[in-house]
TrEMBL record:
<keyword id="KW-0378">Hydrolase</keyword>
<feature type="active site" description="Nucleophile">
    <location>
        <position position="381"/>
    </location>
</feature>
<dbReference type="GO" id="GO:0016052">
    <property type="term" value="P:carbohydrate catabolic process"/>
</dbReference>
<comment type="similarity">
    <text>Belongs to the glycosyl hydrolase 1 family.</text>
</comment>
<dbReference type="InterPro" id="IPR017853">
    <property type="entry name" value="GH"/>
</dbReference>
<protein>
    <submittedName>
        <fullName>6-phospho-beta-glucosidase</fullName>
    </submittedName>
</protein>
<dbReference type="InterPro" id="IPR033132">
    <property type="entry name" value="GH_1_N_CS"/>
</dbReference>
<dbReference type="GO" id="GO:0005829">
    <property type="term" value="C:cytosol"/>
</dbReference>
<dbReference type="InterPro" id="IPR001360">
    <property type="entry name" value="Glyco_hydro_1"/>
</dbReference>
<dbReference type="GO" id="GO:0008422">
    <property type="term" value="F:beta-glucosidase activity"/>
</dbReference>
<dbReference type="Pfam" id="PF00232">
    <property type="entry name" value="Glyco_hydro_1"/>
</dbReference>
<keyword id="KW-0326">Glycosidase</keyword>
<dbReference type="InterPro" id="IPR018120">
    <property type="entry name" value="Glyco_hydro_1_AS"/>
</dbReference>
């Protein structure tokens, strides 16, 4: 069988991790611009890594320094996008997933009219992609919102954000209607409870009841996502809108039924936001979880109808690792879980950052998602963070990365052979960029090396890694030559 003839091979990046130019041409500060480089935090403690307070934001905004705020500088994609897109085209990309920085179009989120320089920037980026017949896949919210909205409203915890986001999206649809057909609403929508600031602009010490605010934010994002899906379909005939979840595939630690129960709970919480976006309603178990935990989600009249009437066209997801759950006597209800890295799995190796490498897990994920949702799937992130060495003759021998991708592609193809309808695959990330969780540059994902270190030193020159030519061959053969 093999992959579709029109399989969308490509790569994925996000505005806040590549663009830089955080305060030029009218862009306002975003939540990403106050994220600090934290080299010494235990990578297993995801919550600590992304911890943010009202004070840390004030401190960050008192300086224009980019050394310790790497997302402010990214990899200078803002100025170098023609060179980068040309390299993607050389690999044969059919698609490129990017995101639009809300704060580049609406600096504080509340302007009536968009910032023209921001609008023009993305127009130019799309033009460059089309020059090489690269189909844009655009995320409307990828770990980025105007900082002002986080400070003033506590982000998505406040219902007023819905209208502001809809205004931003409407601008995107009207301006880029001829450029973009594939849209995603919220990146890794399930992550609100894992890192509320990055994902929803919630400043934890500004919340009286953090868990309540997180679930309220979920609800607002669901409504916003549904409204935006409707508007997109109206404004761009033939467009397709997808949801995007982090597929944190969880295994029971043993055949002990109680471990199986723990794992079921974990997976159910992981699926829930996509369930709402695909089925158009809240799962009963989640509504009961709200009740049991005294969470009172305020829903306006008509919200449930909006969710029901505007479900997504396809399901996209990121897949990096699998996790393991064990029974915990003190925790018998569904839990959101606050770590990304689960228990140890003796059958799997891990990356230097402790993320398990589990290609079969990708196949399992594809089968599970297709069986659950019966919608076309799109792998929009998958890859391995590693430290690379640039040799004196400008080469990077990254066999480990090739091995990672090869093993994942083999399993992906087996899932397609089993009947999964898969639209495409975009690697995270085709070019080295600033890490979302650690703000490191040294956690490298790309087929293209960027000469920049954690503190922003380097020429920013781009170099092709060995994996560059390998991926080019994979795309050319539509996955037959691995
Ligand atoms: C996902 C995010 C991306 C990306 C990736 C790798 O969660 O959607 O933005 O960064 O993970 O994570 P990290 O950069 O922390 O290694």
């Amino acid at each position: 069988m093999g992959l579709r003839k029109d399989f969308l091979w490509g790569g994925a990046i996000a505005a806040n991790q590549v663009e830089g130019a955080w305060n030029v041409d009218g862009k306002g500060p975003s939540v990403a611009d106050v994220a600090t480089y934290k080299p010494n935090v235990d990578v297993k403690d995801y919550k600590k890594q992304v911890q943010i307070t009202q004070d840390s934001i004030k401190q960050a905004m008192a300086t224009k320094d980019t050394t310790y705020y790497p997302k402010r500088r990214g990899i200078d994609f803002y100025h170098r996008y023609p060179e980068d897109i040309k390299l993607f085209a050389e690999m044969g990309f059919k698609t490129l997933r990017i995101s639009i920085a809300w704060s580049r179009l609406y600096p504080t989120g509340e302007e009536e009219e968009p910032n023209q320089a921001g609008v023009d920037f993305y127009k130019a980026v799309f033009k460059e992609m089309h020059k090489y017949h690269i189909e844009p896949l655009v995320t409307l919210s990828h770990y980025e919102m105007p900082l002002a909205l986080a400070q003033k409203y506590n982000g998505w915890a406040d219902r007023r954000i819905i209208d502001l986001f809809v205004r931003f999206c409407r601008t995107c649809f009207t301006t880029y209607r001829d450029d973009v057909k594939y849209w995603l609403t919220f990146n890794e929508i399930d992550s609100v409870t894992r890192h509320p600031f990055t994902s929803a602009g919630i400043i934890p010490d500004q919340s009286d009841n953090l868990l309540q605010d997180e679930y309220q934010a979920f609800h607002h994002q669901f409504v916003a996502s549904a409204l935006v899906t409707k508007i997109c379909h109206e404004l761009i005939p033939g467009s397709q809108v997808g949801c995007m979840l982090t597929k944190l595939t969880d295994y029971a630690n043993s055949a002990d039924p109680r471990d199986v129960l723990a794992s079921f709970n974990k997976n159910t919480m992981n699926y829930f936001p996509a369930d709402v976006q695909v089925f158009g309603r809240y799962p009963e178990l989640i509504l009961n979880y709200f009740k049991k935990n005294n969470l009172h989600i305020v829903m306006a009249d008509g919200d449930l109808e909006i969710l029901a009437a505007n479900t997504v066209d396809f399901v996209s997801f990121s897949y990096y690792m699998s996790m393991v759950s064990s029974y915990d006597e003190n925790n018998l209800t569904l839990t959101s879980g606050n770590t990304v890295v689960g228990g140890k799995n003796p059958y799997l190796k891990s990356t230097d950052w402790g993320w398990t490498v589990d290609p079969v897990g990708l196949r399992i994920s594809l089968l599970q998602l297709y069986d659950r949702y019966h919608k076309p799937l799109f792998i929009v992130e998958n890859g391995m963070g590693a430290q690379d060495e640039l040799t004196s003759d400008g080469k990077i021998h990254d066999d480990y990365r090739i091995d990672y991708f090869r093993s994942h592609f083999e399993e992906m193809i087996k899932a397609v052979d089993a009947g999964v309808d898969l639209m495409g695959y975009t690697s995270w990330a085709p070019i080295d960029l600033v890490s979302a969780s650690t703000s490191q540059m040294s956690k490298r994902y790309g087929f293209i090396y960027v000469d920049e270190d954690d503190l922003g030193r380097g020429s920013l020159n781009r170099y092709k890694k060995d994996s560059f030519t390998w991926y080019q061959k994979v795309i050319r053969s539509n996955g037959e030559d691995l």
